[in-house]
Amino acid sequence: MLADYLPVLLLFVVAFGFVAASLGVSALVGPRRPNPSKLSAYECGNEPLAQVKGTRFSVKFYLVAMMFLIFDIETVFVYPWAITTADLGWFGFGQMALFLGLLGVAFVYEIGRGGLTWD
Amino acid sequence: MTDLTQFLPDIAWSSVAPEIAMTVAVVVLLLMTVAGRRRMWVATPMGLAIAGVGVALLVVESTSPADPSLPGLLAIVAGVALVALTFGLAGVPRALHAWIAGLGAGAALVLTAWQIFDVAWTGSLFAASTTMEGSVAMDGLAIFTRITVYLSTLLVLPIGFAYVRDRNIHRPEFEPLLLLSAVGMALLGAANDVITLFIALEVLSIALYVLTGSARRDRRSQEAAVKYFVLGAVASAILLYGFALSYIATGSLELPGIALGMADPGSPLRLLAVSMVLVLVGVGFKVALVPFQLWVPDVYEGAPTNVTAFMGAATKAAGFAAMLRLFVVAWAPLADLWVPIVAVLAGLSMAYGAWAALVQDDVKRLLAYSAVAHAGYATIGIVSLSDAGLSATMWYLFTYAITSITALGGIIAIERRNHRAVSISDLNGLGRTSPALAAVMSLALLSLAGIPPTLGFEGKLGVFTAGMLSGLTWLVVLGVVTSVVSAFYYLRLMGAMFLTDPAPDAPVPAYSHGWNAGVTVAAGLIVYLGLQPSILLDLAERAAVLAR
């Protein structure tokens, strides 16, 4: 069974080999004459204006990200139900209503406790 | 389009009725937290809805075999009680929250009793069945775990009520998290497939991580929460990996199916052995068996004491329920392989717990090491691999839960006036300054040591008997020896209480109505069930029925 995956392995080897070979050859034989324009960030953003010791994020982002993640994943559960609503009938509707109801309680709690207020 | 209705599961709500009651209580509590002063706007419609469901249960013709009249009546009472409590305790929201949580846990306990007599009783034994496509078991183990867990919740709520106020660590999330954790524990006892089992384990663990760190200004509490969380997450991952391997090896997620797959002579034994070891690591962490016990002292010490009481009592019962089900049902065909391993772990736990506790000065830490030793005793019932061992473990966990709640309840009373960790010298002369508290503490310590007229003796007797019947003489001898060793440090605490003079400036322990009620009931159970164990012991003996 594992032999079936041999082409995948070969592809990996070829891909990595090509990258390693081209980077290695260019590093070995390529001429090196740096100037300021060559060393500047090229199509990769701007030069940083000030040196920042460790980027600082507000810890509030963490809460927002968590909330987003939770509710985002919950919507994923709704999709498969939405396309089979007719087949699942009232049973499916009841289950989904229960699920969304519990989720709604969590949402009400989140807003009520100030989980979404920034300041 | 294919017809999907044939795949719709038949959900037996009666098999999770206590958990539903608890979840409803959680929802009410969360909404009330948000509503603040306008809490009547939550209580009235919720109360009416709950009572309405109750009326519907009474009136509507039921198709299920279970008789719904008791849950119906209970829902009506609970709905009315919810509105009445909200009116009566409008000025004291904290008490209101605690009462609602108590209402939920009480309802869960009543529904468990209803399950015993109306759903799962055949006259002499529990009937074992599974519902929800085999995910949830309805058997003796599930129901007995519920009794232990919900009774612990009901005891811990009033005992810790004034304590969290005095330490100023109460937040409205406390009660919902406690109830959610209890729901996870109860489901862990009932889970019959590895997915349900894992989700129940996470529900109980995540709520407990937060509860452990609920003293937000206390560094030790924060440290305990982080340690518990990191180690717990790793243990969960290892457990999950074990489940994944067993699924590869047997192609089944349900525990009886895993056993069937193992019995097949063509099954990959090495893979199964590895998965067994990984699962043992995962559950061993949760129940604190020896090589996986490192978190126990720090977490028990750092967590708020009422959380420690809940954690020590209920989590252990739930964790052992899962361990019983995993090893006695799923890994039964590999018993020759795991019995020696688990037996050695049990012996190590007993020895380590007993000896490490000898040198402790902090009382909570001492009780944490004793918890490790008690995990070892409870494991004897599992490795006995018999019905007697099964019921002995369940019964032992019940006795340990009640006893440890009483002991930690005593510490709560002292800690409330001390405002710091309780060391052994804080107990000096307690027998003279507060004889009632000293008496209750001594009762709990004697029960932990397993001295005859107490509940702890009945528990130890059960596991040791089961061990002897299964020929584990060396383990039982080790258990008796470590019991003697551990009796030394329990008696050392009692000696501090009764044989030394009180410090002149020793603070007077603080009591409250809730504490009095909770500790009185717990201590009463220790004495009453110590003398008259037959009521619950019979139940435990008949509960040795597992859904397979």
Task: Please provide a written account of the structure.
The complex is a heterodimer of chains A (119) and B (548). Chain A has 119 residues and is mainly alpha-helical. Among the domains of chain A are: 2-31; 60-112. Chain A has helices at residues 6-29, 36-39, 60-83, 85-112. Chain B has two domains: 7-119; 120-542, no CATH class. Chain B has helices spanning 17-35, 40-59, 69-88, 93-119, 140-166, 174-190, 194-212, 219-250, 255-263, 269-287, 295-302, 305-330, 335-358, 363-384, 387-418, 430-433, 435-449, 455-469, 473-499, 513-531, 534-542; strands at 129-131, 136-138. In chain B, strands 1-2 form a two-stranded antiparallel ribbon. In chain B, helix 1 packs antiparallel against helix 4, helix 4 (93-119) runs antiparallel to helix 5 and helix 11 (295-302) runs antiparallel to helix 12 (305-330). Chain B is globular. Chain B starts with 16 loop residues before the first helix and ends in a 6-residue tail after the last helix. At the A-B interface, helix 4 of A face helix 1 of B.
